[in-house]
DNA sequence: GGCCAGGGGGTGT
DNA sequence: ACACCCCATGGC
């Protein structure tokens, strides 16, 4: 990785395993907007980022060296060696025994994915909202909530962007107000999440030191948080990279690769743990993106 | 353990 | 125009 500063922009070069489009469009985050091909605005970590990738050159517009190192370097997981992870996922003894051309293709074609280290509160609420919804709609709702209840983050190309509200800001919003943001039956779940966080029944600082089973158990105290939502929160905002969230797409692609028939999520989770071990979260992202991009359907099992 | 509601936009026909 | 689907969960 080579980092240079020019005209108040940071230019990142020689960065392996980094494709800004794959990183943002793989479904792990929702608070961003595409401006052009591989050019995006991201609102995250109480900062606003205008970023563009041209081949192997990644430009962080109007970003100081300090902000790059303290905010974006950890956010984009830049200090992790993804080549080692990808290579291990394909060549460990378990995956060699159950070789899959599709897993290998997923990792090769979508090898530019990185798992972002996102904000805990925003990730929790975002994945509560995500249930039974499509990505464009999730993005729209998060945008509406941010504009109505969050602080102004800044302006890029003449357009204003807003932070996702903090816990204290969102805790003041009523269930009915949340319904007006098209959250539907998830509105009381969001209210319950804010209450449990305020009462410290669920506490981020405790989860950061917990293992993934304890984390899931604590997160699932919140109404509307089941295994899928809890595992996304653990993976995307608590650095628990062993968890393997199973949604309809991952279920389909796992069934196609390893089972060739309809299979219970518990059984899929058990196999994923055996095959991918502590790198389950990475495998899940490659497989999810592969399944969605190739529109894997049930009858293709 | 299986079934179904609950909002509303996406997508295909 | 219309049916079916969606990064699920709670509650029966």
From TrEMBL:
UniProt KW keywords: DNA damage, DNA repair, Glycosidase, Hydrolase, Lyase, Multifunctional enzyme
Q: Which SUPFAM superfamilies match?
A: DNA-glycosylase, TATA-box binding protein-like
List the Pfam families hit by this protein, alphabetically.
Answer: HhH-GPD, OGG_N
Entry-linked InterPro entries: DNA_glycosylase, HhH-GPD_domain, HhH_base_excis_C, OGG_N, Oxidative_DNA_repair_enzyme
Citing just one GO molecular function, the answer is:
class I DNA-(apurinic or apyrimidinic site) endonuclease activity
For the HhH-GPD domain, which residue ranges apply?
A: 129-292
Any one of the GO BP annotations: base-excision repair
Task: Name the Gene3D superfamilies on file.
Answer: 3.30.310.260, Helix-hairpin-Helix base-excision DNA repair enzymes (C-terminal), Hypothetical protein, domain 2
Quote the EC number: 4.2.99.18
Tell me the domain of life. Bacteria
Reaction equations catalysed: 2'-deoxyribonucleotide-(2'-deoxyribose 5'-phosphate)-2'-deoxyribonucleotide-DNA = a 3'-end 2'-deoxyribonucleotide-(2,3-dehydro-2,3-deoxyribose 5'-phosphate)-DNA + a 5'-end 5'-phospho-2'-deoxyribonucleoside-DNA + H(+)
Family indicated by similarity: Belongs to the type-1 OGG1 family.
- What name is this protein filed under? DNA-(apurinic or apyrimidinic site) lyase
């Amino acid at each position: 990785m080579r980092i240079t500063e020019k005209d108040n922009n940071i230019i990142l070069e020689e960065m392996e395993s980094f494709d800004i489009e794959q990183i943002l469009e793989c479904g792990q985050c929702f608070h961003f907007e595409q401006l052009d091909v591989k050019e995006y605005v991201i609102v995250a970590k109480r900062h606003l980022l205008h970023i563009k990738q041209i081949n192997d050159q990644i430009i962080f517009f109007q970003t100081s060296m300090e902000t790059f190192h303290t905010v974006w370097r950890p956010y984009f997981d830049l200090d992790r060696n993804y080549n080692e992870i990808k290579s291990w996922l394909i060549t460990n003894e378990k995956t060699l025994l159950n070789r899959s051309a599709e897993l290998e293709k997923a990792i090769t074609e979508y090898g530019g994915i990185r798992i972002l280290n996102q904000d805990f509160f925003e990730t929790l609420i975002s994945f509560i909202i995500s249930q039974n919804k499509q990505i464009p709609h999730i993005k729209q709702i998060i945008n509406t909530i941010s504009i109505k209840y969050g602080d102004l983050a800044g302006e890029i190309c003449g357009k204003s962007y807003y932070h996702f509200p903090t816990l204290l800001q969102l805790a003041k919003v009523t269930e009915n107000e949340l319904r007006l943001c098209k959250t539907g039956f998830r509105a009381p779940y969001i209210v319950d999440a804010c209450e449990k966080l305020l009462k410290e029944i669920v506490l981020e600082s405790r989860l950061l030191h917990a293992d993934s089973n304890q984390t899931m158990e604590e997160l699932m105290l919140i109404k509307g948080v089941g295994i899928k939502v809890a595992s996304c929160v653990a993976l995307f905002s608590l650095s628990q990279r062993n968890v393997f969230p199973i949604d309809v797409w991952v279920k389909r692609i796992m069934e196609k690769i390893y089972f060739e028939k309809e299979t219970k999520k518990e059984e899929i989770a058990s196999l994923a743990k055996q095959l991918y071990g502590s790198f389950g979260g990475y495998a899940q992202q490659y497989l999810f993106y592969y399944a969605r991009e190739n529109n894997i359907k049930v009858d293709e099992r």
